[in-house]
Structures are given as structure tokens and as C-alpha cells.
Amino acid sequence: MRGLLAIALVALLSLQAIAKTDTPALADRLEKAISARMMADGVQGVVVVLIADGAPVWTKAFGLADPGTGRAMTEDALFRVESISKPVTAWGAMHLVEAGRLDLDRPITDCLQSWQPPEGTPRLTARQMLTHTAGIGLGDFAARFAPDAPRPRLADHLAQDFRMIAVPGTGFSYSDSGYNLLELLIGDCSGEDFAAFMRRDILQPLGMRSATFDWTGAEMPVGHDLRGRPAAPYVYPGRGSGGLFATAEDVARFAAAGMAGAQQDVLSPHGIAALHRPYVAVTGLFGIVADGYGLGHFTETLRDGRAALWHGGQGYGWMSHMHLVPESGDGIVILSNSQRAWPLFAMILRDWSGSLGVAPVGMARVLWVETGARIAMVLLLLVTVLALWRAIAGRPWRRTLRIGAAVVGGTLILWPIWAGMQDYLFLFSILPGLWPWLAAVSALAGLSLCAVAVFPKRRT
Asked: What is the pLDDT of residues 253-286, one digit of tens each?
């Protein structure tokens, strides 16, 4: 019996030793891969933090904070973290719940004073807004203002932006407007400005020293849009949905606070469990990368059965992501000053998942689209070769085939032109480096089809 115990102890120590070597091995892989991927996709800068055993263990900055001046990215750079603001806002709401100042399931009108939903709006609760089940529309995520320019009060903005699109409680519908309304609710229930309350009761106690929901004018990296152009500084009318400024260390401290056994005084273990518990199944595009949504957190189950939580953010010129496994204390934070960083994030998350011994997390599926795009390019090139071969060989096409070829060819030519005229397409985010090549190959195939359709070479 003692021999078996000794063998088991040795095996356990060996597993622990292996686990401890995972972080250096992962860090080495990332250092080699990130710079190459950044160059391929035109990503200016990124900061990555690895978390193990509930604490940050590796932080690395890559690329440039400002390509215009050559300023290098630094580990302590202050970022717009966009929708990572939502889980932080959720902590603020739960803090009020545990203080007895907010009831998640009572009508928000019990506490909300600074603005009232339009007459006829169904009964709404804080839980519904936290879980994106309130039936409120997404909202105008493009409403941006220069920090020193006049901008509408949040109440006035909501008066124009608030829309009900579904019956409350009937399903998942991601909503920035819902979290902006939650910001007003937190301010009214706490009796003070949202940013001041969050800084004193959430950010500072968690050690998020640089984090703030207020614009301070502090030096930041220069953001870059999907075409790689610099993005001027801006603020939103609301802060609760996407207005947090923080460093990668700040976000890592926040992630670590949600780990099992974390030492923090902001929320009870029961309150954290309530935030992390899946509440609603996620549908639509989000359903490709997440299983459910709790209170301010996307949820998924890893292949080994462990629960994982995450949230990401995308704004004009900025991208962010936070993933954590509370049970084991593992996590990762990725912040970038480029809107072209989604495939880079997916690659990093794929490698991080591998270091945990599990299949890639849902967000790594962004790389599937790249694979699909490459396959599509090969097929389009085959179409081009086939069309040209038929033309050179003098093989005539029937009239119906010629009409079909003209329609398909015209579509393949016109969609890249239309896409290039848009300010934003989902395609640009997931294929920042590949979509111009996909567009070019598509246009080439379209031209070949149109040429064969319009000028069919006849055999003499």
C-alpha cells in the first residue's frame, strides 16, 4: 500500500512539474509566432499576459504603440478595453446587490431616476440587462465623440438610441444599450457618478491602479482601424458597455479576482459564482464561439469538462480579450491597438488552449474562416483556369450557361467593389490580411467567366 502511495505521489509531483513548464514553453512559442502573425495581418501592437495559479506569470509587449513616431509598445500601456467593460460593470452591479441596494429581479424603475424607458416598455430587470435577455437592441456602437467635444448626456443618448426588439426574457440579444442603461441604474442606486463609484468600490480594491471609466487624457497607444489608419481618440456617450480604460495588468488583476480561492474583498464567493453561472444559451454568430452567457461573462465548457469564462471587445481602432478558467486559475489577457487583430487573438488562444491540454476554445474558431477563405480562393482559381481553358480550346457554351456565367461572373466582380466601399464589414475583422487576396481572386474568376460568356470562341 505504501508503495502505491509513493508511486501516486511521484506521479502527482511529475504532473505538477509538467504544469509548471507549460507557461515557459507557451511563452516561447508565442514570442516566435506573434511577431510574424502581426506582420502578416498588419497589426501594429499587442500586449499579452498569461495567468497561472490565479496570478499573472508572464507579460510581453510586441510591436509599436505609435508607428508614426516609432514609439514601442510597452507592458504598462493604457488601452481602450471596449466590451471587457461589461464584466467589470457586472461586478459593480453585484456589489450593490450584496450591499442590499439593488435587486436583480425587481423592475429597474424601482431605483432608476435619471431616465425612464418610453411608455409601454415591458417590465425590465437588472438581471435581464446583465444577461442580454432584456430584448433591448444593440444600440449605436458608432456613436463616438472627441474627448474635448460636446457630447450628449447618456440619458439624452438613450432617449434616441433605446429600442425594444424582443420580449424581455425570451432569449439572448447582445445589447450595448442595455449596459448603458445599467450604468444609469448603478449610478442612481449608488447615489453617485458611475465612474466614481466603480473606481472606489471595484477598480481600486481589485488593484486595477490605472483603470478608469473616465477620460483622463493620459498617454495611450494610437489605435488603428481595419485599414490600418490611425484612429483619433474618442469617448462614447455611455461608459458601462465599453468605456473602460485599463492596462493589461489591470485586466489580468480583474481576471485573477474571479478565480477560485482569490483573495479579494469586493464580492463574496456566492456573488462571483452568480456572475459566472450560465444563464442563457447564446445564439447567432456569438453561438459559434460561446455556449452561454452569465452575468457579464460569456461561458463555455472545455473539452475536459472545466468551465471557462471570457469576454472580448472591439472598437474603432482597438481590440481586447480576456479568458479564464476559474477552477484551475489559468487565464490570458490580450490587448491590441489594432482592429485587425482578431486572427492574431485566435492564434494566441489556440496555443493557450493547447498548453492547458484541451481543444481550442471557441474564439479560436475564427481561424476556421481563414481556412475556408483559402479553400474558396483555390476553387475560384480553378474556375478561372477552367473558363480560360474552354475559351482557348474553343469549346462553345450553351446560351443558358453563358447567361449563368455572366451573372456569376458579374457578382464575383461587383462584391469586392461593394465591400471596399464599406466602412465596416464582419469579413474585414476576421480576414484582415486575406480579404484583399480573396477579393482579387474573386474578381479574376469573375472576369474570366464574363469574358467566356460575352466572347465565346467558336470552333471553325
From this structure: 999 999 999 999 999 999 999 999 999 999 988 9
Alpha carbons 244 and 215: distance in angstroms, whole number: 9
Find how far residue 259's CA is from the centre of its chain: 21
Q: Are 289 and 363 in contact (CB under 8 A)?
A: yes
User: How far apart, in whole angstroms, are the C-alpha atoms of residue 96 and residue 275?
Assistant: 13
CA atoms in the 13 A half-sphere facing the CB of 32: 7
User: Rounded CA gap, 204 and 206, in Å?
Assistant: 5
Q: Three-state SS across 251-295?
A: HHHHHHHCCCCCCCCCCCHHHHHHHHCCCEECCCCHHHHCCEECC
Enter the DSSP assignment of 113.
-
Query: Residue 332: enclosing H or E segment and its boundaries?
Result: strand 330-336
- The Cα 143–Cα 94 span in angstroms is 28
Provide φ and ψ at 83, rounded to 5°: -75, 0
What's the rounded Cα separation, in Å, for the pair 177 and 163? 8
The predicted pLDDT at position 206 comes to 98
Cross-strand partners of 280: 293
Helix, strand, coil shares, percent, the chain, to 5: 45, 15, 40
CA distance 252 to 407: 52
Distance CA 371, CA 249 (A): 33
pLDDT at residue 15 tops 70: no
Beta-bridge partners for 323 = 310, 332
Q: Is the pLDDT of residue 107 over 70?
A: yes
At residue 250, what is the residue type? D
Three-state DSSP at 413 gives helix
Coil, helix or strand at residue 326: coil
Q: Please give the pLDDT value at position 395.
A: 61
Strands 280-281 and 292-293: antiparallel
Q: Which of 241, 237, 277, 219 is nearest to 76 (CA)?
A: 219
Report the candidate in 246, 290, 113 with the shortest Cα–Cα distance to residue 192.
Answer: 113
Task: Specify which residues 312 forms β-bridges with.
Answer: 321
- Grid cell in block for residue 24: 515557459
> What is the pTM (predicted TM-score) of this model?
0.90
